[in-house]
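**User:** Everyone, produce a chain:

**Assistant:**
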Amino acid sequence: MCRSIKTLRPPVLPEEATEEDIRAAALQYVRKVSGFRAPAAHNREVFDHAVEAIAAATAELLGGLEVRGAATQRAG
């Protein structure tokens, strides 16, 4: 199962990205960069930490983006 990382910001994604969307993208990124679909037991902790850190950074990025010309403005 290999999914491409999709764009998660409006207007490409009609509504705001969910935590599930963000985590799936982070997991795919870590898999691609590490070369592991699932890490060995001795790498599980660092793998999972990377997924969580990237998911947090992605949520922060999406929360701070200003999308000009979007049909709806985010409440700030």
User: Anything to note?
Assistant: The two ends are 37 Å apart (CA to CA). The CA atoms of residues 22 and 55 lie 6 Å apart.
